[in-house]
Amino acid sequence: MTALLFTDDAYRRACDATVVGVQGNAVELDQTVFYVQGGGQPGDRGTLTLPDGSALAIANAVKGETPGQVLHLLADGTTPPAPGSKVTAAVDWDRRHKLMRMHTALHLLSAVLPFPVTGGQVGDDKGRLDFDIPEATLEKDEIDAKLNALVAADHSVTSDWITDAELDARPDLVKTMSVQPPRGAGRVRLLKIGDGVDLQPCGGTHVRRTGEIGPLAVAKIEKKGRLTRRVTIAFA
Predict the structure, then answer these.
(1) Buried b (16+ CB within 10 A) or exposed e, 196-217
(2) Residue 158 phi, psi (nearest 5)
(3) Are 178 and 159 in the same domain?
(4) Which residue range forms the structural domain that includes residue 34?
(5) DSSP string across 191-224
(6) What is the CATH number of the domain that holds 61?
(7) DSSP 8-state class, residue 169
(8) pTM score, two decimals?
(9) Could you give the CA distance from residue 100 to residue 202 in angstroms, rounded to a whole number?
(10) Domain end: 49, 76, 91, which one?
(11) Residue pLDDT, tens place only, 96-145
(12) Do 231 and 131 form a contact (C-beta atoms < 8 A)?
């Protein structure tokens, strides 16, 4: 299993690691700072730097076929380092930080619109959530104002862990209908924003305070079905 260092510290930009496996252009490390694609958030991009100073571009980080395996995908045509090689793994920080800000912003959106979430996508300039909403009119200006008020309040963003059994006993914590929190590891990570702003399972990367997100704007509200409303937000 690859140790996921970003889980405890999303601000860590690099780490030393050892190559433990290679599959084609995919490199497996013993530990990583790269967020692994999943939950609507893209995997990180970045570099693996070898002892001689040469840097290999990483295009994405994805889950492998075995539980706990993380594959760092090299750009096409790149020769991977051999197993046992020592490398320094570093993320593209500017992109990572934008994803952290947007992912946290989507949590705020789910608090402003307290409806079941049927889908979502995190981007580095915009993000969206799909809501299961009965026939209703969503007011863009009202959502804008509520989102930016939560940002300006500079609420703390923290995480904690609960057991699988504790989560099963509290199904109200799960807002997402299409994606369920991963079970089987014995515990699930909870993200908490402020005092009662938002609390739900999430394995993504987030900022430490909502003020770090910056101003937001609703870019688009779409009707995707009889009950589905898609709300896209962007950095203002």
Answers:
(1) ebbbbbbbbbbbebbeebeebe
(2) -130, 170
(3) yes
(4) 3-91
(5) EEETTTTEEEE--S---SBGGGT--EEEEEEEE-
(6) 2.40.30.130
(7) T
(8) 0.92
(9) 12
(10) 91
(11) 999 999 999 999 999 999 999 999 999 999 999 999 987 778 999 999 99
(12) yes
